[in-house]
From TrEMBL:
<dbReference type="GO" id="GO:1990414">
    <property type="term" value="P:replication-born double-strand break repair via sister chromatid exchange"/>
</dbReference>
<dbReference type="GO" id="GO:0043240">
    <property type="term" value="C:Fanconi anaemia nuclear complex"/>
</dbReference>
<protein>
    <submittedName>
        <fullName>Fanconi anemia group B protein-like</fullName>
    </submittedName>
</protein>
<dbReference type="GO" id="GO:0036297">
    <property type="term" value="P:interstrand cross-link repair"/>
</dbReference>
<feature type="region of interest" description="Disordered">
    <location>
        <begin position="416"/>
        <end position="436"/>
    </location>
</feature>
<dbReference type="GO" id="GO:1905168">
    <property type="term" value="P:positive regulation of double-strand break repair via homologous recombination"/>
</dbReference>
<dbReference type="InterPro" id="IPR033333">
    <property type="entry name" value="FANCB"/>
</dbReference>
<feature type="compositionally biased region" description="Acidic residues">
    <location>
        <begin position="416"/>
        <end position="426"/>
    </location>
</feature>
<dbReference type="GO" id="GO:2000042">
    <property type="term" value="P:negative regulation of double-strand break repair via homologous recombination"/>
</dbReference>
C-alpha cells in the first residue's frame, strides 16, 4: 500500500513522507500524505518511532497524488530551518497539475506554504531552496516560485534544461558569454566567477560553500562533481584542488562537520554508490555501495554531525530502518543489519557531557582564584626582598633602618615574646589587617527585551563587600563543539538598591554629587547611587542589540561579572586586582520576555516591576537638566507633571513617573528634584524627540525669565566626547606651541634689525653705499630662506615636544577608550 516514499533528516531525526491510499478510511479522504519521524536510540542500536501524522491532499477517489521531492531549507520569515515536501495532484483529464509545498511546522502538523498550477508535469531536476523557493526546468528554461514571487516566474534568459541543486544563484549555460542570474534582484552576472566555462557542460551536481559580495564582485567557493569522475574545488572561478572518485553519474553533494577532526564531502551517485572525501586533504576517506539513501545530521546528539547510510533490501521503504550505518569515520560507528558490524564508539551520555563541562568550568574558576592568590604572594615576596636589600644597604652605609610592621605586609611572625603580646593595647587591635574581600554573592539573574535590545541584570546580596567603582557585566556566547566563547558587544551600568526589609524594596534615589567610575572598556552613560551605601544592594546591568543574537542563532548567553578586589589596597605599592565570576546562563524566549508588568500596572510592588524599571533606565537615553528661575519661584512643578494626562507614579520607586501613552513609540520616565524654590533638576529618560516635546509643553508653564541648561557631572562625558576634547586639545597645543616658538624667533630677528639700523657707512662714497645695500639685500634673502626653514632654540623645541607628547598620550588613551566602548 505504500508508494512514492521520500525521506530526509531534520533535527537529528529521519522523516519519511508517503502518499498512501488507505481503504479503511472514508472514500472521500483516500488520497493523503502520511509522515513519520524516527530517532536513533543508542542503547538498543535501532531507530524508534517518534511521531507520526497525516494530511489530506485530495478528497476525490480518482485523484492521482505523488511526492515530487522533499528537502530542508531556511524559512526566511521565521528564520528557522524547516522540512518541506512538494506534492502534485493531477486533474482527472491530465491537462493540468496542481502543486503544493507543505512545511512541517511541528512534529505532527503540515501546513501549506505555496500552491500553484502548471499545464505540464515536472520531470527534470526540482530543487527547494532558501526562502523557500521552488525551482525547476522545462523546455530549455528555468522557472521558480516563492511566497514573495506571487506566482510562477520564468528566468528571462535561455538556459540549459539542468541546473545545479542548492544554488540560490543558478548558472546560465549560454555558449558566449557564461552568465549567472540572481533570482531576488533579477540581475545577471558573469558566471565564470562561479564555474569556468569549460566545466559547465561536464558538471553534474555542485554545492556552494561560501558566497559573498566584495566590492560589487561575487566571491564564492564551490565544490562540483563532473562527468569525468572528478570532484573539483573552485575558488572565485579558479580550480584549487581535484580528487578522482571511483564512481560516475553524481547526483548530490552533502557536507558533514565532524568537529575537530574536520569536514567531509558526501557524494551520492546513481546505482547506489556513496563516496566520502576529506575537505582539508581532498582525499577519499571511504566508499560504500548498494546504498538506498545518505543523510548528514547529528543523529547521536553529541554536537557534531555523522553520516547515516541506509542500505537497500528492506531499507527506507519498509518503514522501520533495519540496515544502516552511522559513522563519522573518526571513531564513531554504529551499524545494524550488516554482515560485519563495526565496533561501537563509547560515547558518554549527553547528561554526562554536561556534568563534565560544569566540572571543567569549576576547575577553571578554581585555577583562576589560585593564580590570583599566587600573584598576590609574589608581590608580597618582591616587597620583602626589596626591603631586605634596603636593610643591607643601610647597614653597610651606617644609616638607620626603618622597617614596616609584618601585619602591614600581610605576614605573620613565627615567634612573639610574651612581653610584646601583653603590651598590646585594645587600640592596636583596632588596626588589624582587614580580611580579604570574599567573592560576591548573587541574589538574582534576570533579563528583559526592551526597545529591541536585550538587557541582562544581576542583583548582588547586601553582604557582598565589593567596590561599585570597578563592577561591570559582560556577556559571552554559548560555545559550540568547535568554537570558543565570544564576547558580545555590551554596555554595562551600575545601580544601587536598598537592602531587603519588611516592605518591598524600592529603587534608591540618585545622589547628585556621586558618580561611579568603571573600566574604560565598560564605561556607562548613567549611574544611580544610593545615599545609604552600607545597607544597599548592588545591581549591575548589561545591554546589547537583540537582532544580531537572533540572526546568529545565539539563544543562550553566559553572564560574567567583573569586579575589583581591594584586599591589598592598604599595602604599599599594591593596587586593586580584577576578578571574574561566572553568574549563570540566560536563555532567550521572546514570547515570555515581551510581557512587562511595569507598563501594565506601575502601582504594584514586585521584583519584576523593579527589573522592568532597571531595564528602562538602562536602555533609554538620559538627560539631566538644571532649571533656574532667578525672578520668580518655580511653583509646583512636581504637581504639574502629575496632573498631565498619562503620567503614573511607580510605587517601587515613587520619585519616578512613567508615561506610556499609546501614541508614543517608547515609554518615558521623569524625576523632579527640587533644590530650592528657584532651582531644581529634571531627569528625563526617553528618546530625544519625546524629550523635546515635553520641554516645549513645559516652557508654557515655567516663568518667562527662567532658563534651562544641562547639568555637567563629573565623569559623565561619553568616550566620543572625551576623544573629541582630547583631539581638540592636541590641535590647540600644537598650534600654540609652534606659534610661540616662531614668535620668539621673529622677536629675535626684529631685535637684530633694530640693532642693525643704527649702523651707517662712515664714508658717504657711492661705493660704500652700494656695498651696504648689497649686504642688506643678501641678509634679507638669507632671512627669507631661514623663515621657510626656521632654526629655533633647541631648549624651547624640546620643551614643546615634551608638552605635545603628553597631550598626544591623553588623546591616544581617549581613542582607546572609544574603541573599547564601540
Amino acid at each position: 500500500s505504500n508508494r512514492n516514499v521520500h525521506g530526509l533528516s531534520h533535527g537529528g531525526k529521519i522523516l519519511l513522507f508517503t502518499c498512501k491510499r488507505d481503504p479503511a478510511v472514508n472514500v472521500s479522504e483516500r488520497s493523503g500524505l502520511t509522515f513519520r519521524s524516527f530517532y536513533f536510540e543508542r542503547e538498543g542500536n535501532a531507530f524508534l518511532n517518534a511521531t507520526e501524522g497525516a494530511t489530506v491532499i485530495s478528497r476525490k477517489p480518482s485523484a492521482h497524488v505523488d511526492i515530487v521531492t522533499c528537502k530542508c531549507a531556511v524559512d526566511v520569515q521565521k528564520r528557522v530551518k524547516t522540512a518541506f515536501v512538494l506534492v502534485t495532484k493531477m486533474s482527472e483529464k491530465g491537462s493540468s497539475f496542481k502543486y503544493s509545498l507543505l512545511a512541517l511546522r511541528s512534529s505532527h502538523r503540515l501546513e501549506p506554504c505555496i500552491e500553484f498550477k502548471l499545464p505540464y508535469q515536472m520531470k527534470g531536476k526540482v530543487s527547494i531552496l532558501q526562502g523557500p523557493t521552488v525551482m525547476w526546468s522545462h523546455d530549455n528554461s528555468v522557472s521558480y516560485t516563492s511566497p514573495e514571487a506571487e506566482g510562477v516566474r520564468k528566468i528571462p534568459i535561455q538556459m540549459r534544461t539542468s541546473h545545479p541543486e542548492r544554488l540560490s544563484e543558478p548558472l546560465l549555460a549560454n555558449h558566449s558569454p557564461t552568465l549567472g542570474y540572481l533570482c531576488e534582484g533579477g540581475q545577471a552576472f558573469d558566471g565564470s566567477l562561479v564555474l569556468p566555462h569549460p566545466y559547465i557542460c561536464i558538471t553534474q551536481c555542485m554545492r556552494v560553500l561560501t558566497a559573498d559580495r566584495v566590492d560589487d564582485v561575487l566571491r564564492c567557493t564551490v565544490v562540483a562533481a563532473t562527468s569525468n569522475q572528478q570532484l573539483v574545488l573552485f575558488e572565485n572561478g579558479t580550480v584549487k584542488d581535484t580528487c578522482e572518485v571511483p564512481f560516475g553519474q553524481a547526483e548530490d553533494i552533502q557536507m558533514a562537520d565532524t568537529g575537530r577532526n574536520g569536514c567531509l564531502f558526501v557524494v551520492s551517485f546513481k546505482q547506489g554508490h556513496v563516496c566520502a572525501v576529506w575537505k582539508e586533504t581532498f582525499q577519499i576517506a571511504s566508499c560504500w555501495s548498494d546504498v538506498d539513501s545518505a543523510h548528514v545530521d547529528d543523529f547521536l546528539g553529541c554536537g557534531t554531525e555523522q553520516i547515516l547510510l541506509i542500505f537497500r533490501n528492506n531499507g527506507i521503504s519498509s518503514g522501520p530502518l533495519e540496515k544502516f550505518i552511522i559513522t563519522d569515520l573518526c571513531g564513531i560507528s554504529y551499524s545494524c543489519g550488516q554482515g560485519s558490524e563495526a565496533p561501537k564508539a563509547s560515547l558518554p551520555p549527553q547528561e554526562n557531557s554536561l556534568l563534565t563541562l560544569q566540572a571543567l568550568e569549576s576547575r577553571l574558576q578554581s585555577g583562576l582564584i589560585v593564580l590570583q592568590e599566587l600573584e598576590r604572594e609574589v608581590r608580597v615576596k618582591d616587597r620583602v626582598l626589596q626591603q631586605s636589600i634596603q636593610v643591607l644597604t643601610d647597614v653597610l652605609s651606617g644609616r638607620e633602618t626603618v622597617l614596616s610592621q609584618p601585619e602591614q605586609e600581610g605576614l605573620v611572625a613565627l615567634w612573639d615574646s610574651d612581653e610584646e603580646s601583653n603590651d598590646e593595647t585594645p587600640d592596636d587591635k583596632l588596626h588589624e589587617t582587614p580580611a580579604l574581600s570574599s567573592r560576591p554573592k548573587i541574589d538574582k539573574l534576570w533579563h528583559r527585551i526592551t526597545e529591541e535590545q536585550l538587557v541582562v541584570g544581576l542583583i548582588l546580596t547586601a553582604d557582598s563587600a565589593i567596590p561599585a567603582s570597578g563592577v561591570s557585566l559582560s556577556l559571552l556566547t554559548e560555545p559550540g563543539q568547535n568554537s570558543t566563547p565570544a564576547v558580545i558587544q555590551t554596555r554595562s551600568q551600575v545601580f544601587w538598591l536598598p537592602a531587603r526589609g519588611p516592605s518591598t524594596p524600592t529603587l534608591s534615589s540618585p545622589s547628585p554629587g556621586f558618580a561611579f567610575s568603571e573600566p574604560a572598556a565598560k564605561r556607562s552613560r548613567q549611574h544611580i547611587a544610593s545615599d545609604d551605601f552600607s545597607a544597599g544592594r548592588l545591581a549591575v546591568t548589561a545591554v546589547t542589540k537583540l537582532a544580531p543574537l537572533l540572526t546568529s542563532g545565539c539563544v543562550k548567553c553566559r553572564a560574567m561579572l567583573h569586579y575589583a578586589e581591594k584586599a591589598e589596597a592598604v599595602f604599599p605599592g599594591s593596587g586593586p586586582t580584577t576578578a571574574v565570576l561566572h553568574c549563570g546562563e540566560v536563555s532567550l524566549d521572546i514570547r515570555n520576555l515581551c510581557q512587562k508588568p511595569l507598563l501594565q500596572n506601575p502601582q504594584i510592588k514586585t521584583d519584576e516591576v523593579r527589573e522592568d524599571l532597571l531595564s528602562l533606565l538602562t536602555v533609554l537615553d538620559n538627560w539631566v537638566l538644571r532649571i533656574d528661575s532667578p525672578d520668580y519661584s518655580l511653583g509646583d512643578i512636581d504637581g504639574w507633571i502629575k496632573r498631565r494626562e498619562g503620567f503614573k507614579k511607580i510605587d517601587v520607586s515613587p520619585e519616578y513617573l512613567l508615561l506610556d501613552s499609546p501614541g508614543s513609540s517608547a515609554p518615558m520616565l521623569l524625576r523632579w528634584h527640587q533644590i530650592n524654590p528657584f532651582q531644581g533638576d529634571l531627569s528625563i529618560h526617553s528618546s530625544q524627540l519625546q524629550m523635546l516635546q515635553f520641554l516645549d509643553s513645559m516652557l508654557s508653564y515655567l516663568p518667562d525669565s527662567c532658563f534651562i541648561q544641562p547639568v555637567k557631572r563629573a565623569r559623565s562625558q561619553s568616550a566620543a566626547q572625551k576623544l573629541a576634547c582630547a583631539l581638540e586639545k592636541e590641535v590647540l597645543s600644537l598650534r600654540e606651541g609652534l606659534s610661540s616658538l616662531l614668535c620668539a624667533k621673529d622677536e629675535e630677528e626684529r631685535k637684530e634689525r633694530r640693532a642693525g639700523h643704527g649702523e651707517t657707512p662712515d664714508s658717504g662714497s657711492a661705493e660704500d653705499l652700494v656695498r651696504c645695500c648689497r649686504e642688506a639685500w643678501q641678509q634679507n634673502v638669507e632671512k627669507n630662506r631661514l623663515r621657510l626653514n626656521p632654526v629655533v632654540d633647541a631648549g624651547r623645541y624640546r620643551e614643546m615636544v615634551r608638552s605635545i607628547s603628553q597631550v598626544k598620550m591623553d588623546s591616544d588613551l581617549a581613542a582607546l577608550c572609544q574603541l573599547n566602548q564601540s
